[in-house]
Amino acid sequence: MTPTSPTPALPPSLRHGAYEDAQALLAGTLFVAMALMLFNQSGLLIGGTAGIGFLLHYLTGISFGKLFFVVNLPFYWFAWTRMGREFTLKTFFSVALLSALVELFPHVIHVDYLNPLFAALLGGLLLGTGCLFLARHKSSLGGATVVSLYLQDRFGIRAGKAQMLIDCSVLLLSLAVVPLERVAYSVLAAVVMSVFLWISHRPGRYVGR
Length: 209
What we know:
About 70% of the residues lie in helices and about 0% in strands. By secondary structure, it is mostly helical. The radius of gyration is 16 Å and the shape is globular.
């Protein structure tokens, strides 16, 4: 298996320190957890492994946090062999933290009324922002994000484009479980997130690592 091409060494002033990485991973994961809370309360879905976790949650009643953590386990091997040790460890930390936050949120916050269109738009932006934070600090939330970042680094395929294709495919499969209206709002959220990443996360634009 061919690993990704090594990135050029950066001057110390441009490298992220441990504190900067920790801050970005916490903030990015928190943004995503807020988006998933909005989706859960409005009955929406998301693509990738998070979407699979939501589908299993709706079908089994098992909490999303636990399912999301388990569904991501097979992707760590791919991340380790293709993206490297640092990326894999940071991704594992981010997924574990997100699973914990999703379990915690229902005990500390609740929204009494939430329009699904607003949830789709705001949730999509929160997801895109959170994933961008993580990607710029060599992390992800596993699953489709790992694959899309690998395709961008290895073949130059924009991460947002790959993420959109994967997410929309998963959402279309959910039609057997979720009403069409909710799937349509979920697709909108996936498009908002992916367009945000498509525009904002370009190879070579951001040099800090």
